[in-house]
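To assess whether ligand presence alters the predicted conformation, the chain was also submitted together with flavin-adenine dinucleotide. Input:
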Amino acid sequence: MAAAKVTIIGAGIGGLTAALALQHRGIGVRVYEQSSQLGEIGAGLHLSPNGMKVLYALGLNDEIEAIRFQPEALALRHFETGKPFFENPFTGDFIKTFGAPFYGFHRADLHKMLLDAVERNDQDCIAVGKRLTALTEDKDGVTLVFEDGSEVREPVVVGADGVHSTVRTLLHSDPDARFTGHVAYRGMVSVDDLEPDLVEPKMNLWAGPGAHVVAYYVRRGELLNYVALTEEDGWETESWTTQANKADLADQFKDWNPTVQTIIDHTQQGQCYKWALLMRDPLPAWSTARTTLLGDAAHPMVPYLAQGSVMAIEDAWVVAHYLSAHPSDPGKALKAYEEARLERTGKIQIGAWEQGQITHAVGRGGDIAERGDGGGFAKSSWIYGYDACALYPD
Ligand SMILES: Cc1cc2nc3c(=O)[nH]c(=O)nc-3n(C[C@H](O)[C@H](O)[C@H](O)COP(=O)(O)OP(=O)(O)OC[C@H]3O[C@@H](n4cnc5c(N)ncnc54)[C@H](O)[C@@H]3O)c2cc1C
């Protein structure tokens, strides 16, 4: 017997994957999204094998092939010379070892792929322009109130409403958000504007003193995405839409390898953005009898392990598994989901921050072995080797 219906707040990558995973198990969904139009911002992201396994299990093989980019390797480079400290291949044995590839995507492509799949199953299940403002839960259900004054009563609610989650704020004491002193600048460059072969088809990471830059291709190799991470004060806002001054960014990297400077120079005007990195401790719990959290709403993290979306995708598979296993007892299902996810996601939240510090230490001349992934991905095997689909099968 499938659970009657599950309501999801937020149609981001986490919310849509959850919708699809629930539909995959025959559970009806209703998604409420605050934006009036569905879409994603113009940025890239990497999905490691632990996330890819879920997307394949949801039957998205052909759709993935049409939009992904396969980087050849992780190349950790010296910030001035550009010479690699090491290269770890993402092909060959990597795929055999971890059971799926490591791909680069344009966020908008990934989001559209998920949205199309959800709407193929149910054309009318997503309501836009619905910003949740209040939530009250009693033993029989959950009442949701939206900014437009409308109100609905639902049996089970999943808060997939991102780093500034309203569901989390309403139901749990919000974790302290502390500015880390790191800022992420990002931009996208068309490959037509770059010399061919200027940037190798790898996940290129230049590590320098107190900063690093990651550049990789997305959208079948048509666009180059970069993120430049700096240590600085005076800017503490987490937002995908805050514009940065490209000239200021270029100035910060003026002594770096010419390839890094060329990438920054070719960012289209008005397409350079900045995001202050805030750190939050893992929550001790995130479910009630009828409501839970997923993705950044549950475990916001800094991006140094590139696992935020991947964790949301894993969460989506696991929450669907338990809601399907306990259709008439949401409290039991949501508790079991939380127990399955708390330790792993908390470890990644903390590990992500440590990874950023290690990378910047390498750039300051610290021990490269500290990064632990020279000559292989042994340090990441507990992350990449995880298989939610095998642990929580259909
Ligand atoms: C610079 C940078 C680089 C990154 N790179 C990677 C990477 O390479 N790989 C990776 O896995 N992760 C990466 N991440 C992390 C990733 O972006 C996030 O973890 C991911 O977007 C979380 O997805 P989500 O669905 O939980 O939240 P979101 O993507 O934030 O989606 C939340 C949705 O909820 C909606 N919403 C919010 N509030 C309400 C409300 N009150 N009512 C209704 N709807 C609401 C929002 O409009 C949005 O659509 C990166 C992050 C940053 C900052």
